[in-house]
Batch of 2 targets.
Target 1
Amino acid sequence: GESVGLHLPTLSVQEGDNSIINCAYSNSASDYFIWYKQESGKGPQFIIDIRSNMDKRQGQRVTVLLNKTVKHLSLQIAATQPGDSAVYFCAENMGYNFNKFYFGSGTKLNVKP
Amino acid sequence: DVKVTQSSRYLVKRTGEKVFLECVQDMDHENMFWYRQDPGLGLRLIYFSYDVKMKEKGDIPEGYSVSREKKERFSLILESASTNQTSMYLCASSLGRGSTEAFFGQGTRLTVV
């Protein structure tokens, strides 16, 4: 599979600030891009996805932006809270019939009180 | 809630041993996955199964095999454990073709000595 990588391995933000986590991908054929959150000692958990024909999608306090021109994906977290401290992974849904997920290397988000 | 259960949280095995990691999901999902997670490398797909007795290699299948005799259970087998297989192993499941949400187990921390 092709790689999905992250620009910043660690991001520290102040509680209440907005966070932006970035991801570069290389496979233009992916149909969906997905963000996962992994808290310490747990498995990753789905946050939000975006289809390749969209450029923006909003959820509760989170927004994902997709720029296909430069193959860039970002996750914006509004009013970051201590509970947002985790490792964030971007992933692509690909493979025959889009069954498989390929993950990036992750960004650790530290929220300072 | 979907539950993906991995049989062991921590496991210590000796080099050369045959190791079985078990995973069970309770939501009748078609797809099941095994990933390994290493610092700085993110989640790498070892094997994937889209149906009973069906499997597909991921990015790093060497040294591993899998078994899916029943829909709810997906086993990862290390034929002859080696120290470079010391890692966190994560099992996941997803509903089926086109699903963007994978549900993960808590992980098994395997140490091969």
Target 2
Amino acid sequence: QQQVKQSPQSLIVQKGGISIINCAYENTAFDYFPWYQQFPGKGPALLIAIRPDVSEKKEGRFTISFNKSAKQFSLHIMDSQPGDSATYFCAARRETSGSRLTFGEGTQLTVNP
Amino acid sequence: EPEVTQTPSHQVTQMGQEVILRCVPISNHLYFYWYRQILGQKVEFLVSFYNNEISEKSEIFDDQFSVERPDGSNFTLKIRSTKLEDSAMYFCASSADLMGGPLHFGNGTRLTVT
């Protein structure tokens, strides 16, 4: 019930291409869905987040698509750049005080120049 | 921009020894967390802390772990008797909101148990 499944495990994209990472969750009590970006040797950094009252959120080149009925959400990175090469984690939580963030397994994105 | 700071960046200890990992959360934040990441695996929740009490803990956070906020700025994770399988990156995080909201993570402490 607490799991968040993420795919693919790794992704290679050419510069300028679109990177798409998918996540699925089980717990219908989850109501906050962030994506984190992690560079080697650094902690996860919040990239973008969505709540289930909207189906899409866009910030610059990053878009989250959310499908509540399917319990799935995805991250789209438009015009992918070599600097986007990092590990991306989806996550989910119940947005109540102090509740845990449950992470997906991570996707290692490589953007080739 | 305010950030969560963690010390040390790397800690090497022998099996059975006690370690204390230290964190300074963002100053106006109210909720504090510890997560760990075994090499190549996902980030796993350990414990959340609010108002000098544990709010929630995972099944990983057994009796060998404890957390403390000894003063107004530091937040610590103590592992009483380290095991080889405790080797991981340990991340501290904090958040401002009473109703959840974004977590801000530190850069982690790499713990190596030999």
